[in-house]
Amino acid sequence: MKIIPVESYEKLSRLGANIIFSQVTVKPRSVLGLATGSSPVGIYRELVARYNAGELDFSGVTTVNLDEYIGLAPDHPQSYRRFMQENLFDHVNIDPAKTFVPNGLAPDLEAECVAYDRRIDDLGGIDLQLLGIGLDGHIGFNEPDDSFCKPTHVAGLHESTIAANARFFASKNEVPRRAISMGLGSIMQARKILLVANGPAKKEIVKQAFTGPVTPRVPASILQLHPDVTVIFSEE
Ligand code: GLP
Questions:
Q1: Strand boundaries in the chain, DSSP class E
Q2: Single pTM value for the model
Q3: Phi then psi for 160, rounded to 5 degrees?
Q4: What is the DSSP letter of 151?
Q5: Any residues with Cβ below 6 Å from ligand 1, and which?
């Protein structure tokens, strides 16, 4: 595991974008696992800038997103599908048919989860998975638990996650209580992992997750067992 401390969010974003840039340049038909949240926004901004500069081509790329809120339509302002459209997909030459986000309105949620993992398998697995980290150590919506949950599943959001994500909604009551999330097994099967964490509030959880014991109480700690993880942390 490589842990790279940087002094600013700008540097985090530039470095993170460099890693994705290299991946797509070396393998134009890459499968990228993508994340939402505030931390990766700067990376997406950088990638769009490089696309606009003619340096990056997304035409061969396929993306699979980590998670989606249950009950939000794709065009809901806080859905993760909409987030991805607004922050990346609408601004680059990616084929919309090759961008996958779990369907939070699926009539059969269990079937949607099984199909999502099957899709990742059919794509040949994820080449590079981008992750943020929650204050309680969650990745995707894999919350602290008694055991590591491996496949894509329906996840209940913990109180602290609902409180943290309330900033994006009109009120805490509007934050969905459940989401479809890629499981830790699905994430761990990615060939490379890039995790970005930003701000002083994340310092303690980053330390616990990457220098503390591997435990399902801190879901991100499982990444210590992955052979190719880069963590970029900015305290700004
Ligand atoms: C949400 C997402 C996670 C993300 C986390 C942290 O809960 N499901 O994938 O990592 O928020 O977000 P932020 O980067 O805004 O702190």
A1: 2-6, 31-34, 62-65, 67-69, 99-100, 128-131, 153-156, 178-181, 192-198, 229-234
A2: 0.97
A3: -70, -30
A4: S
A5: 35-39, 66-67, 132-134, 140-141, 161, 165
Tell me the pLDDT tens digit for each residue of 184-230: 999 999 999 999 999 999 999 999 999 999 999 999 999 999 999 99
Over residues 94-120, the mean pLDDT reads 98
Over residues 13-58, the pLDDT tens digits come to 999 999 999 999 999 999 999 999 999 999 999 999 999 999 999 9
Long-range contacts of 168-177 (CB under 8 A, 24+ apart): 168/78, 169/78, 176/69, 176/70, 176/71, 176/72, 176/104
CB 89 within 8 A of CB 46: no
Residue 19 host element (H or E): helix 9-26
Considering only CA atoms, which of 10, 14, 40, 34 is closest in space to residue 197?
A: 40
Most ligand 1 atoms within 8 A of CB, residue of 9, 12, 34, 39 to mutate = 39
- Answer for the pair 193, 133: CB distance below 8 angstroms, yes or no: no
Helix residue ranges, H only, 53-153: 80-87, 109-122
- Per the CB < 8 A criterion, the answer to whether 175 and 165 are in contact is yes
Whether 155 and 142 have beta carbons less than 8 Å apart is answered as yes
User: Two tokens at 200?
Assistant: 């002083």
